[in-house]
Amino acid sequence: MIIRKSPSEIEIMKEAGRVSARALRLVGEAVRPGVTTGELDRIAEEAIRQEGGVPAFKGYRGFPRTLCTSLNEQVVHGIPSSKIVLKEGDIVSVDVGAVVDGYYGDNARTFAVGRVVPVAEKLLEVTAESLQAGIDAARPGNRLFDIGHAVQTVAEAAGFSVVREYVGHGIGRSMHEDPNVPNFGMAGKGPELQPGMVLAIEPMVNAGTHAVESLSDGWTVVTCDGQLSAHFEHTVAITEQGPIVLTDEPGAGLTNG
Ligand code: MG
What we know:
Elements lengths: L6 H24 L6 H14 L3 E2 L11 E5 L2 E3 L14 E10 L2 E10 L5 H19 L7 H14 L3 E2 L5 E3 L6 E5 L16 E4 L2 E3 L5 E3 L6 E3 L5 E3 L2 E6 L2 E4 L12
Antiparallel strand pairs: 1-4, 2-4, 3-12, 4-5, 6-10, 7-8, 7-9, 9-14, 10-13, 11-12, 14-15
Helix pairs in contact: 1-2, 3-4
The chain binds magnesium ion (MG).
Magnesium ion binds next to loops.
């Protein structure tokens, strides 16, 4: 069942989104060669708690940290550590969520560490574009799979592939609600999108094939072919006026897309 949110609930979710977006921005500003993913995690947790929020991922199914930090061929769910040092040329996907007044915000972005190879630069650009295409499709009257179709079209036109096993999701009083929001699919299929639905749209785009596997830590997902992967995510409310990105810092403009 897809839980539709009232306008007042969406106002609270804007605050959860703002806190999540601010944490992601502050982490992004700290990304540089030599910093550890453990330090990035500390920055994010402090940023969320400063604003009266609670880290959404910490303790979720036993996940130990505030952030997921996934480097290079890692797709999602990498665990931050004081032993993992970013180096020039890496890309690092950072996923962060916050709970405010019982509602969740969730966003992600892949950052370049210093100068990166051209394919990495292109992968980041295309993944951000694919997220924007998905957001643009999140409007009343469209169907759910119109979102994934839009994401997939942009990613594949660039010669990249979209991950199948991990998808976006409804979000509200729980981090993961119905429906699943795949990053692929046939246009015109799936439930009709209606005002009040709130979705976390999160393309995971691989430079090579779409196949992924999990590492023995039980969390980290990597590409099977060892090529790069990127991940961008926003929490988006569907309204009569069209999509509204909730993981935004008003006044600062869109920072994550
Ligand atoms: Mg998510």
